[in-house]
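User: Before I run my own analysis I want an independent prediction to cross-check against. Here's the chain; please return only the structure tokens and, at the end, one sentence I can use as a sanity check.
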Amino acid sequence: MHGTSTLLNWILWTPFIGVVGVILLPYLFSKDKQDNVVRWWSLLNTIGSMILAVVLYMKFDTSVPGMQEQFAVNIAWIKQFNIFYSLGVDGISLPMIMLAALLFFLCILSSWTITKSVKGYFALFLMLQGTVYGVFLALDFFLFYVYWEVMLLPMFFLIGIWGGENREYAAVKFFLYTFFGSILMLVGIIALYYASGKGVDSFNILALSGGKFIDNQVHMFGTVWSFSKVFFWAMFIGFAIKVPVFPFHTWLPHAHVQAPTAVSVILAGVLLKMGTYGFLRIAYPIFPQASVQFADWIAVLGLINVIYGALCAMAQTDVKKLVAYSSVSHMGFVMLGLAAMTVHGMNGAVLQMFNHGTSTAMMFLLIGILYERSHHRWIVRPDGTKGFGGLYTQLPKYSIVFIIAMFASMGLPGLSGFISEALIFLGIYQKYTTITVLALFGLLIGAAYLLWMFKRMFFGEVIEECKSYTDMNAREIFYMAPLCVAVIVFGIYPTPVLDIMKSSVGQLVSLLAQFQ
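Assistant: Structure tokens:
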């Protein structure tokens, strides 16, 4: 192993070292100090992760498209099945690692007020971070699957123990849906293992890609099917549940509304991106012919997500549910970019994955701040009275940050959401002109539900209940500031993110172009 490759190991294992620390460190201190020790240790651990991600960014050569050409780790793990502990990074996974590193750090800060079994919460949270890194770095299919699957555990307990009133229902629904997707993916992994001849590269994601299974056939249910079509759909549905693509989206609003704030942020900011990352890393490169063949379907599903998610958001009276449905709508744009299979469309999709992570994280963190003061999230309560009113005069600092987050979500020019959506539309216009025009209505509805929510909550008379609310404190301003900077800076100057991804995305687009 050469020097640079240890960097990926450090990035991957730092959160797991953090988990061990959370479990063991408190025993060195008296009872009353233990919770604070856990908090500070978790914070230092995520700062360490963030520094390592920045080092990776600094050392990353943007001109190299492949995943194994720069920082590669490749160690034999289970030899008789040719399973390797194999890690790599490229221009598609690096923005996701940077995003995860930032969001986990901010989420630890926002979780400072958690008092219910602090040790368990932070241990699970750091474990979640480790599994997220594992998914974005793994080059071995088996390793990828292990991290993909283990990630369900911390998520299940974080929602099920620290969530809202219906937390058990939300946690079980989240687990069952995602587990169903994972089973389909597992069938695909096993099929690929046999189809590739059980050789040294049978689990190597890079070696499997390039459309090697076009002529293969598979016997199922008494008929002969095209191997690549059947298993493209197995992989597609496995990842689509995570995105979530309509009609597999129904777990998302429950999980979001019941999850504690920090978990909602990670769910929207990072975990949904794993689904689209799966398309880019696995479904498209391994089955390029089927991907091209079914591109129209992917575009239609993306359009349904955009419009349906936006209409559902408009109907919500719970502000957190509104933002949850807006995520469904925004991920629809990513799907449209992926369906385009053009350089602009794919770049826009990867950029949207990154930008949506920052703007939605802002929205969920802001809702969490408000929830800590009010202990409810109703824009309009079930009995028809206003939940919030006149917040602008009560919480001026909070309102300004909220406006930035809202306009970034809406895709206002000058903020990050605009560039990625513009690139997606540039990419899909020629191929899907009708869908482009219809998807623009999704943007219009998006502006409508966000502005309507803002009007009802922040304008008008200050209702009695809101008079006791305090504005953002120093800790809250501190963890909102980096996201405010990110949505403004990447809105005006997105080149740093686009530069990272261009050669990797270009490589994938040229592979797909061979089959068009």
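Sanity check: The longest helix spans residues 343-374.
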